[in-house]
Amino acid sequence: MSKFWSRTAREAKPYTPGEQPNELQVIKLNTNENPYPPSPNTLEAMKRVVNEDLRKYPTPTVDSLKSVIANREGVNDEQVFVGNGSDEVLAFAFQAFFESNEAIKFPGVTYSFYPVYANLYGIPFQEVPLNEDFTINVDGMKQSIGGVIFPNPNAPTGLALRLNQVEKVLQGNPNSVVVVDEAYVEFGAESAVQLVEQYPNLLVTKTLSKSHALAGIRVGYAIGQEELIEGLERIKNSFNSYTINRVSLAGAEAALRDDAYYQETLERVINTRVWFKQSLEELGFEVLDSKANFLFVKPVRVEAEWLYLTLKERGFYIRYFDKSKVRGYVRISVGTDEEMERLLNEISNLLKNYV
Ligand code: PMP
Question: What is the predicted pLDDT for the residue at 355?
């Protein structure tokens, strides 16, 4: 705390990001990164920009990337907003669509950035407890005064709502914006982008961080009707017109064009998730039915916190949330087959030797 801090800085309750260890040997399965590198074409495109174009500002309207996204998503260019990671898109959405005197709703267990933004912008919020089976309570998400936000699939559970359930939330909130955060949708859930034409209150956010192995260049986007996209542009341009740098723009465009590579790595991650889930279940662990690139796991015979700490000592980083609602669970990102085999081995040995 400093006497120079504004009230906003004093009262901020910042998000705690997952650990980013520096040691090269660790197996890092704690922040849901894609275990495969970006496609060779993506790297080439970025190198070209580094060699030729860094002197110049990027185009603030990012028209070319918007067209590539619009084409891929089957919408018009005017229905696309691009941000510095979907975190930034979400932050802008909070400012553009939520009012400081109207409570928004989000699930009781969800992405922990939502309460951080809400606090930062002075927006009251109501957390809607999950159902017993960890699914989102769809009826509870209706009739929000200020708006709604939830990830689909949800984080950290990995459970996804079907599209008809997403529609129920949209229909239950005709006068406020519903943000569907699809950071992990590519790994097996249904995208709500196909509902955008029908629902003027729907904003869908996506990211290249996970599906396209580009967490490092920070590109995310939103799809919605023109009116909502204009709202986001107003906020962005009041803050910094150049939120996407030239290297990121080139990388994102190239990655989105390289569909074959994307499909192949996506399939690999999904296949690994399937066998790894089954293997954990064979050990007796409880594993939720994930549609994302991570698994939400309740260990048996050992405490979740102990497992997290012990694995960390042995060079495996997974995520443990020190929160009462999910105490007892760990979240494990899906790595390569080799990484997951090593982790499974380690867990089996721990169970044999320590229990
Ligand atoms: N939404 C959810 C649910 C997430 O888990 C994450 C990643 N931590 C994000 C959004 C943000 O991803 P990015 O800023 O890398 O696009």
Answer: 65
Question: For atom 1 of ligand 1, which residue has the closest CA?
Answer: 183
From CA 217, how far away is CA 208, in angstroms rounded?
A: 9
Pick the CATH number of 56-257 from 3.40.50.620, 3.30.428.10, 3.40.640.10, 2.40.50.140: 3.40.640.10
Q: Which of 286, 285, 342 is nearest to 316 (CA)?
A: 342
DSSP 59: P
125-128 and 104-107 strand pairing: parallel
CA nearest ligand 1 atom 6, residue: 183
Contact residues of ligand 1, CB 6 A cut-off: 85-87, 111, 151, 155, 181, 183, 207, 209, 215, 220
Q: Is the pTM of this model over 0.90?
A: yes
Quote the ipTM score: 0.99
Q: Which CATH superfamily is domain 7-37+260-354 in?
A: Aspartate Aminotransferase, domain 1 (3.90.1150.10)
Q: What is the per-residue pLDDT across 8-48, written as a single tens digit (0 to 9) for each?
A: 999 999 988 888 877 768 999 999 999 999 999 999 999 99
